[in-house]
Specification:
This protein is of the alpha+beta class. The chain folds into two domains: 140 residues, Beta Polymerase, domain 2; 59 residues, no CATH class. The protein has a five-stranded mixed sheet with strand order 1-2-7-6-3, sandwiched between helices. α2 crosses α4. It is globular. The relative contact order is 0.14.
Length: 212
Amino acid sequence: MRMNDSTALDVLVTNPTSGQRTGLAKTVRRAVKAMESSGVAYCVIGAAALAARGLPRMTRDVDVVVLCDDAEAAIASLRKAGFVPGSPVGRPGTIESMIIFVDPKTRVDVDLLIAEGQPEASAIFDASPLSLFGATARVSTLEHLLLLYLYSNQPKHLGDFASIVQSGKADVAKAERILFDMHPEMLNDFRVRVKSALFPAPAPAKPKRAKN
């Protein structure tokens, strides 16, 4: 599915409660422009990356990851573009691991994740340029998204992991090879989660109605 597919766009930018368009598209374009202007290595992850890779789901923000050495430049570029920190930034050398920036024009958040190593470093290195709401952004591959979600137990991330596996769009064997080189101690956890996605436990049976 391409990002200009109307269904994908509707899922991403339509509030499911009100039916109103959000400002996500405008914020994404501005955030991508700021990151490109910063000159630092980055990539888009999360729901926006899923959508760019053909697996859209509703989201209210855009997630961007950089390495800690590039954090100050990324923060400065987002600020210069008009984004306002909505969470503590920290001091030079002790920057927070995630900073939420708010787009004052749309009230949409940009979550800047500051990473120290793997699996984020490989996700950034292997990201490829894709069109995202008309902007060309560096976007994480599905294989690296699997590895990022492996380290989260949030329900939405468990669901995203399963969606990627079930879609057949990701090279699961390639993701496993990357993980082996990165964190081999996590291979069993990865295989268990893949198996659970492919063969989910059956839903519990409905209780029988009591006889009168």
